[in-house]
Design a protein that fits this description.
The protein is of the alpha+beta class and about 450 residues long. It is built from 7 helices and 26 strands. It folds into 3 domains: about 160 residues, Jelly Rolls (Sandwich); about 110 residues, Immunoglobulin-like, CATH 2.60.40; about 150 residues, TIM Barrel, CATH 3.20.20. The strands form 6 sheets. It has a 5-stranded antiparallel β-sheet with strand order 1-8-5-10-2, with no helix packed on it. The chain has a 5-stranded antiparallel β-sheet with strand order 3-4-9-6-7, with helices on one face. Strand 19 and strand 20 form a beta hairpin.
């Protein structure tokens, strides 16, 4: 097969176990989103008109059964000079196996599990001109142990994987909620936008939003200027009241969604659009161990369900489950973003779950006996849990977060619980494997 200028480097890996080396960690935990160049494209998810969007479909270069490397896929990426004012990100999912990423011969991540859709910040590793991005499939025994027994439907490999470039003065992440006011008369939009200025000089960013009710009525909009120091990030908060909202409270029986669009302006011109669907919800939990919505306990009829082979089949199956009276899905690991979109729109609750499952070792509570109590795996646990939380936290169908499946308990699960608690989210953090210990709210 075709080889590249650093195939020899990868082949050298084959003879060894993938080494634990100091490396840049390009993996980031944030909401999964794209920025569109036009509002109408944002609403319809038309990506062909995005100026700096590249479908990521790397081609198989070689396979091997030696060492820990199994397959290597590569794609050439042309980076023009016009990308100098942009940050480039790689979104990858559907690899079908555990993997790591190389850019121009440099390993930029530790091994990544196959189940969690992942975003990587790759700008520091790109050169102007031709670049090679490689997906190196690995067979690491400890990785297999962390998600033992998990299996997803066979989908098109690298489906929904892409590279896109976003302005260095822009929106890095966001947190959005529609929640009731203290007297439950109407809703308040709690919108926190994490803006970034990756230029070295002070720049002014113009950040705006508008929100439309389910019936199409414009409810609120705002555009504001914010000076930002060079190489800084700051949170920009909006807190408008959204009136006449109680009839639009989201639930499986009333899955009404507001249309929220975030955008930035540069020199007075609208530049980047981020479309969102937002539900009016208020989740929590009570001392009786029940998940609540607007302060009232929910009666849940749950079923484990992971996405099917494609979006259309998944939507059909979710609707069939709802017709059977199922009102809460429990995926076993993070799902494609469209899975949560379907649940928001169709109207069904979700308890999201990190890709952690180690049933064969779960009962061994000695240090290192279960992976959950192996401190050297702490970073792997925290990355999986934090990525799970951030990429889907804004979906109104998600009523709670699970630390994992049958994965035992110990130091790593304690730290994972503390990490999610630090986010300040009102939704329950649950873990059946806690077995009565403190690292589960229910």
């Amino acid at each position: 097969m075709k080889t590249t200028r650093y195939t020899a480097l990868l082949l050298a890996f084959v003879a060894l176990a993938l080494p634990v080396v100091a490396m840049a960690q390009a993996r980031i935990a944030r909401s999964e989103f794209l920025t569109y160049d036009k509002r109408e494209d944002a609403k319809r998810d038309i990506r062909t008109n995005i100026d700096k969007h590249i479908a990521f479909r790397p081609v198989l270069q070689f396979e091997t059964e030696e060492g820990t490397v199994r397959r290597v896929y590569e794609q050439h990426i042309e980076v023009p000079a016009s990308w100098n004012d942009y940050n480039a990100f790689l979104h990858i999912e559907g690899v079908g196996a555990d993997f790591t990423i190389f850019v121009n011969g440099k390993q930029i991540t530790s091994p990544i599990d196959q189940f969690t859709p992942t975003d990587l910040f790759i700008s520091p590793y790109l050169d102007q001109g031709d670049n090679i991005v490689a997906v190196v499939v690995v067979d690491e025994p400890y990785m297999a142990l962390l998600d033992e027994g998990l299996k997803e439907a066979e989908r098109e490999q690298f489906a929904n994987s892409y590279i896109f470039a976003q302005r260095r003065l822009g929106i890095y992440d966001f947190n959005v909620r529609l929640v009731p006011d203290s007297l439950e008369r109407f809703a308040q939009l709690r919108l926190d936008i994490l803006a970034t200025n990756d230029f070295s000089t002070t720049e002014t960013i113009e950040v705006g939003y508008d929100i439309y009710a389910p019936d199409g009525k414009l409810m609120e909009y705002s555009v504001n200027d914010y000076p930002m120091e060079g190489h800084s990030r700051d949170t920009i908060s909006f807190r408008p009241w959204i009136y006449n909202s109680n009839p639009n409270r989201w639930s499986p029986s009333n899955p009404k969604l507001y249309d929220l669009t975030l955008y930035i302006k540069l020199s007075g011109i609208l530049r980047e659009y981020i479309p969102l669907k937002v539900g009016f919800v208020d989740y929590g939990y009570n001392e009786a161990g029940e998940i609540t919505a607007f302060g009232k306990p929910l009666t849940l009829k749950k079923e484990r369900y992971n996405a099917a082979k494609d979006k259309a089949t998944t939507e059909r199956e979710i609707k069939a489950l709802k017709q059977r009276g199922i009102n809460c899905l429990m995926p076993e690991f993070p799902q494609p973003d469209w899975y949560y979109d379907i649940c928001d729109r169709v109207g069904i609750y979700v308890i999201d779950c990190a890709a952690l499952s180690s049933p064969s070792r779960g009962d061994d509570r000695s240090v290192g006996g279960t992976p959950a109590n192996a401190p050297e795996l702490e970073s792997d646990y925290l990355r999986r849990v934090e990525t799970m939380y951030h990429r889907a936290q804004n979906h109104c169908s998600i009523i709670a977060f699970s630390l994992g499946g049958d994965a035992g308990n110990g130091y790593n699960m304690y730290r994972a619980y503390e990490l999610l608690k630090s986010k300040g989210d009102s939704r329950a953090i649950i873990y059946e494997g806690a077995d009565g210990e403190w690292n589960s709210d229910l």
